[in-house]
């Protein structure tokens, strides 16, 4: 990377850091953050290029440190509990796998679901080898396919009492694909399957029960879309209008709205949504080849901006264990958490009404009511 390019990255990071520490709490909308960081970057870069070499070096060093600290290292949760049972979807790889490892390291037993019992058994063994206890990972005896209503129903019926439910699994599908139940693949796996699983298990969540929904900062992109209420309620979609990132962003907004609606209906259960950060995991395995190739070629650059799966799991872990997110503390309200702290999520106009409509439509779909998908 050239000196000019390095200075640009450093100035961008310093501007972003200054904005976060002074104004992000009251004004945490993603678009405002990005705009202010861009303006700050331009102003800082002008000064950097005109500064003395030593000043330029110092600013660059601090900027690169800021980029790494915020984007990669982030905050590390320290809370621990001595018992509990968690179910983590998407636990066979990436953030889900590391969430299981971290929970086991902190004394939580973990149930490992997978598309096959053999895969669940293998994953549980790998988690136990990586964590070395005191918590134990156990394979689920019934396979789980979140894109299938029947599979989710059978899986939920096989479970006994649990304390933590981490809805982590997710897909990004560049090509339009309709499941046999009649929903577009992305919304089926990312939202509808998790909706059905959480609502089915709610009566069996015991003690300091929590539901953690792994969403994404991309939900804010969906909140600004034209006709977003209709997009949220259209589970079928259309091949002609399907766009990978749009479909993914809409599903992540559905996650956030679901967390609000679930919390209000189940005040005895804490429910929060979280953003793990920028983590390149197996969820991107369906991305076009040129995107994956570009990512490989840009590895030195991503060192400053991309978390490892273990670092990405820190936010989920914080939501699972922090006393701040107990049901007694939240009292029927949800939160959106990023980098282990609460942020204001991006929501569409009239969010309560939209969340209620999404809940009713989702409930109709998972119970197989005719005309639930339009």
Automatic annotation (TrEMBL):
One GO MF term: oxidoreductase activity
Keyword ATP-binding appears in the UniProt entry: no
Domain of life of the native organism: Eukaryota
SUPFAM superfamilies cross-referenced by the UniProt entry: NAD(P)-binding Rossmann-fold domains
Pfam families reported in the protein's UniProt record: adh_short
Gene3D superfamilies (UniProt xref): NAD(P)-binding Rossmann-like Domain
Keywords: Oxidoreductase
Family assignment from sequence similarity: Belongs to the short-chain dehydrogenases/reductases (SDR) family.
Protein name: Protochlorophyllide reductase
UniProt source species: Pelagomonas calceolata
